[in-house]
Amino acid sequence: TGSADQHARLVNSFAGYHPLVAGFRARGYRYVQVGGTMHIARCSGYEDVCIGVTRLLQPLDEVFLKRTIFHHIFNEFKIGYQRFIEIPDVIERLPSLMEEAPFFLHAHMAMPHGPFRFHADCTQYEMPKSDLEIDLASWQSSFKEQVACAERQLLQFAEAIIQQDPGGIIVLQSDHGLTYATAYSKEYFLY
Description:
By secondary structure, the protein is an alpha/beta fold. It has helices at residues 4-14, 19-26, 59-65, 70-77, 87-98, 136-164, and strands at residues 30-34, 49-51, 103-107, 116-118, 124-129, 179-181, 188-190. A 3-stranded parallel sheet has the order 2-1-3. The chain has a two-stranded antiparallel ribbon with strand order 4-5. The protein has a two-stranded antiparallel sheet with strand order 6-7. A hairpin with a 5-residue loop joins β4 and β5. The longest helix has 29 residues, at 136-164.
């Protein structure tokens, strides 16, 4: 566990308060933040352009809601649940971003983190599968499918960037593997 100061520095870094962003800005680049993908990577107002979503419920609200009867109502009508910015959403915005190049885009994407939303061919599940409420075999299968989709979408993203800007610089970085653990199981591992 880190200190509150370390956590604040991490959150500020994701919000764009970082020497890397400052360096790009000093060279005339705009800062584009893809927000709404993960709890720590929200638009902060510091960015020049925010690509984000509006949510009816925040992730913590959903955790509490799942413990009530309302979870079933929201689930039945497919309303309110977390909506992520996915790679195709960012690809769709590239042409308008290119009109005012250059820019530095920071996209901390949710894929392949749960909830599981995609089959291997990138078709969406009708309703996302919670990664905390399925057994190990289903989790492994769903995770593998979502990884396959993430790989496909990352290639499409790189191709779209190259098509728009053949001289563009693309840096991809992964943060960590996924952890399997549920409230219903003592099984736990880092995938």
